[in-house]
Amino acid sequence: MSAYALDPDEIRELALPHVGKPPAQIMSDLERDLAARYRDLIHLDMPWVTNPAGFAMYQVKLVFARANEYLGLMSVPVPGTGHSGRHPVTYFDTILSGGSQNVATGEFEPRITSAGDFLVTRPMESFTFHVPEHIYFIEYCRGPLPVLMPFGLANYLFGTLDFKQAAQIVKTHATLAWRSRGVPTPHGEWTGESISAAQRAGADRLSLS
Predict the structure, then answer these.
(1) What is each CA distance from 24 to 14, 27, 86, 136, 169, in whole angstroms?
(2) Please, how many CA atoms are within 13 Å of residue 67, restricted to the half-sphere of its CB?
(3) Contacts of residue 207, Cβ cutoff 8 Å, sequence gap at least 6
């Protein structure tokens, strides 16, 4: 059954040509290509927001959102450590610049992500991560997004006390969700069958439990 407006494999293919560019150019060129590919689905007028979810300091620009999916440009532009959280959603992250060291519970050696990698975090999987320099990526998420609100807002309310940024990210998501009402949803559940063998190997290697 079709339930989603966007497809993670299409997003990855669109993002890959930008791997390795300077970070500012990655973001501007990717915005251009997203708008050209998806037209009215993508809204580039949303601001960048600092989000301390999971104790990392993300810079986030959402460009599409509905009740069960979002697409955003993401970065941790300075070294940092955090936790992915454990959520009933699937994250599809294409790493565009930099990388991270990721460790799931019970592992003793980090799994290294770098530019060009495809990190798939499936429902209820989690990991700790360290960004040694920086990481820039495009993130597509599918699932019941309202359940992410406590994770996304907790460190605003009980850590940074940056209520202005907290209000902005809520406003951004609400605005995009309103704009996206009634959009076509031609895509069903992701199986990974449409990605290449190399990409599938990378997705399996980087998936963390």
Answers:
(1) 17, 5, 30, 10, 21
(2) 5
(3) 119, 120, 121, 122, 125
**Residue 193 confidence class, pLDDT cut points 50, 70, 90:** low
State the DSSP code for 18: G
Our count of domains for the chain comes to 1
Q: Are 184 and 78 in contact (CB under 8 A)?
A: no
Reply yes or no on whether the pLDDT at 16 is more than 60.
yes
User: Alpha-carbon torsion 67, 8, 125, 171, what sign?
Assistant: negative
pLDDT digits 0-9 by tens, 64-75: 999 999 999 999
Domain for residue 1, yes or no? no
Asked, for residue 21, whether it belongs to a domain, the answer is: yes
Q: How far is CA 58 from the centre of its chain?
A: 11
Is a pLDDT exceeding 90 seen at residue 112? yes
Closest C-alpha among 138, 112, 107, 113 to residue 125: 107
Q: Which domain holds residue 113?
A: 8-206
Is 60 within a domain?
yes
Question: Which strand (E) or helix (H) includes residue 14?
Answer: helix 8-15
| Residue 2 counted as domain residue | no
Q: Are residues 176 and 58 in contact, defined by beta-carbon separation less than 8 angstroms?
A: no
